[in-house]
Amino acid sequence: MLAAVFLGAEHPLEDLVAGIIGQAQDGGACRPGLDARHEADLLVSGAVGLGGDMLHGRRGAAQVAATLDYHLDRIFTPAGGYTV
Fold it and tell me: What is this structure's pTM?
């Protein structure tokens, strides 16, 4: 159930994303000084909110992708090998 991922006391999706960002930091693929947990919270909540906007016709897929790309580009360095 998708609701269990977002409504439970645990935050498995945010934990997963924070772990990915943390690994990228360890490998030098992130911009310095980031808090992996806060970035993960922003990414997940942003993606959920933008998905809701798409669902309700407030934003198109290209606009959502561009916004997410913008945020990912702020986290990961080009030398880190990040690609969309």
Answer: 0.79
